[in-house]
Design goal:
Two copies of one chain form a homodimer. The first copy, chain A, has 317 residues and is of the alpha/beta class. Chain A is built from twelve helices and twelve strands. Chain A is 44% helix and 17% strand. Chain A folds into three domains: 44 residues, 434 Repressor (Amino-terminal Domain) (Orthogonal Bundle); 117 residues, 3-Layer(aba) Sandwich (Rossmann fold); 128 residues, Response regulator (Rossmann fold). The first copy, chain A, has a six-stranded parallel beta sheet with strand order 2-1-3-4-5-11, with helices on one face. A four-stranded parallel beta sheet of chain A has the order 7-6-8-9, sandwiched between helices. In chain A, strands 10-12 form a two-stranded antiparallel ribbon. The interface between A and B is large, with 47 and 47 residues. Chain A binds a DNA duplex (30 and 30 nucleotides) through helix 2 and helix 4. Chains A, B: This is LacI family transcriptional regulator. Chains A, B: InterPro entries: HTH_LacI (IPR000843), LacI/GalR-like_sensor (IPR046335), Lambda_DNA-bd_dom_sf (IPR010982), Peripla_BP_I (IPR028082). Chains A, B: Keywords: DNA-binding, Transcription, Transcription regulation.
DNA sequence: GTATTTTTTGTTAACGGTAACAAAGTGATT
DNA sequence: AATCACTTTGTTACCGTTAACAAAAAATAC
């Protein structure tokens, strides 16, 4: 593997000139520059990122800190990772996946944190010395990337209303985190806007629990009903419930989910859901973080993605 | 962040002595060793892995090359990654996720490759210069980690037989890769062993296609039937088919899947499946690869995991 | 008690880059 | 032609670590 010195020798210039051609080409005369380019091409030169990292006091490693039990959201994270990976590779960074349990001393240039709960801000996030981007909205002033959760829930609620249903139940996850509060707010405001009574139900994010809850409700009900769920997992549970009771989807029961990652397509019928552009969001997390690192930790602000309503057969024919 | 020199100065020894305490402690007298340990502790010394990497001509990066369309197997890979990550973190390695499209020149110490198809061996894998561990059985002599696919299919087939069913259909994926051939063989041998007629059906790995196929079959059938599927995704499709036709699971229709990652638990009823210990397997991939790197590329052989039959309500009450 | 071996410690020079400074070349100004 | 300013190139030292060798100290032999 050719080094800077090899390139320099072949082009009959000093190492420094080669280094400059790479980093500050405008400082080198066109003739030498061309010589160096030729030499680089001939030797198939690729910079040694480890050596660069050493001089720059960098590690070229960023960590993805997943504070949530991973099991509960797997397909979601794989997409996030895919997005992050694309951006990191382009900029010669690599990744370490860490969880709450692995409290290694943090040899890295920056972190993307996700799945944080209220307590984590003080005990973990505020103590980090490196630049951080959070994946998930927060009100503590940290840079973050998220989808517009409130709007997402608004458009689904409006969608089922537009299908002519006014008996609309909300199924959410029983945690008091900003993303869930926003989803609840999106539902609640839309209902109140139409003078309808919000009916909010919070539970563990499990398809079986949602199924159990929905069966109880459906057994007692005769009119048309819609369940707007704060996750596809809950949505799938409700689909199962309706099917077990032999109720027609979407004629008797309408169901919507949230996330649009994988599970929505597994359901039968496929689930109407709010798709988050997770891969894109992963890319953005990485991009913001690397920029932040380059800019010595300067805040990069927040980035909120527009949610997209994907209409499928749990709400329309 | 304290460096070797800082530790050395505080302990009043040379840098080299500190380095030796870390790498070859037996070469240092007990007194100095203790001095150095004290100094390290006092300064909270952590080696700079970048500098180590530079002297050792390493990158401390390994790549996970996913040759398969990721979308089709997401939850699966997240588990694999989790396993890999644990091992890498412990040994101060980091990760790059790459796919077929990203053909970066391979600045890394080794690769874990997965989702490879027949063509890939010649065009990609054989050209890699770094140590490689494959995730998935192969007959080309590469080191690999996999579950015993044949045995997995054997035990499921035997399990449904033990439930008193002898009309057993196999639903597999229409690719001629070793893992699938092994699963087919496991089914076929077990059937022939009992003098039963194997019925093999291959299709795209999609729950909706499996549902479509199974509905066709189920409409024409009256006796009890079992579907042993080569993936949970196919299994879920068959569950949906049985439910749409109002057939009783497991009394009229028995269904089994394969993988035991995430999807099996989403199904309703939960799917009897063959669980692969994916996290464990990921760990092993990483461990073998890092050992291989340390041993200058020496073959590490293969590692085949015992599959575990998880019996649930698609085969028994 | 000196020569010889062995153990322990220190010195130097890498690894592959880059920043900071020094030197040489170029051209304009007087 | 001498001075100055500017551009272009090269030299040196350093980032934090380790291997290879050299030197010093300790242990052993005779």
């Amino acid at each position: 593997m050719a080094t800077l010195s090899d390139v320099a020798r072949r082009a009959m210039v000093s190492k420094m000139t080669v280094s400059r051609v790479i980093n500050h080409p405008e400082q080198v005369s066109p003739e030498l520059r061309q010589l160096v380019y030729n030499s680089m091409k001939a030797l198939n030169y690729v910079p040694n990122y480890v050596a660069q990292a050493l001089v720059h006091h960098r590690t070229q490693v960023i960590k993805l800190l997943i504070l949530e039990e991973m099991d509960t959201t797997e397909p979601y994270y794989m997409n996030l990772l895919a997005g992050i990976a694309v951006e990191l590779d382009q900029r010669h960074y690599s990744l370490q996946l860490v969880t709450r349990s692995s409290h290694t001393i943090c040899r890295c240039d920056g972190l993307i944190v996700t799945g944080m709960r209220e307590d984590d801000y003080e005990s973990i996030i505020s103590r980090l010395e490196q630049p951080v981007i959070l994946f998930g909205e927060n009100m503590k002033g940290y840079d973050y990337v998220d989808v517009d959760n409130k709007k997402g829930m608004k458009i689904t609620t409006e969608h089922v209303m537009a299908q002519g249903c006014s008996n609309i139940l909300f199924y959410g996850i029983d945690i008091e985190e900003p993303f869930m509060l926003s989803r609840i707010a999106g539902y609640e405001e839309t209902m109140k806007g139409k003078k309808l009574l919000p009916q909010i139900n919070l539970m563990k994010n499990s398809s079986h629990i949602a199924q159990f809850e929905a069966e109880k409700v459906l057994k007692k009900i005769s009119e048309r009903v819609a369940f707007v769920c704060a996750s596809d997992r809950l949505g799938i549970g409700v689909v199962h419930a309706a099917q077990r009771l032999g109720m027609a989807i979407p004629d008797q029961v309408m169901i919507t989910g949230f996330d649009g990652v994988f599970l929505d397509r597994i359901a039968q019928p496929k689930l109407t859901t709010v798709r988050q552009p997770i891969v894109e969001m992963g890319k953005t997390c990485a991009k913001l973080l690397l920029d932040k690192i380059d800019q010595d930790g300067r805040s990069q602000g927040i980035c909120v993605y527009k949610p997209e309503l994907v209409i499928r057969n749990t709400t329309v024919h």
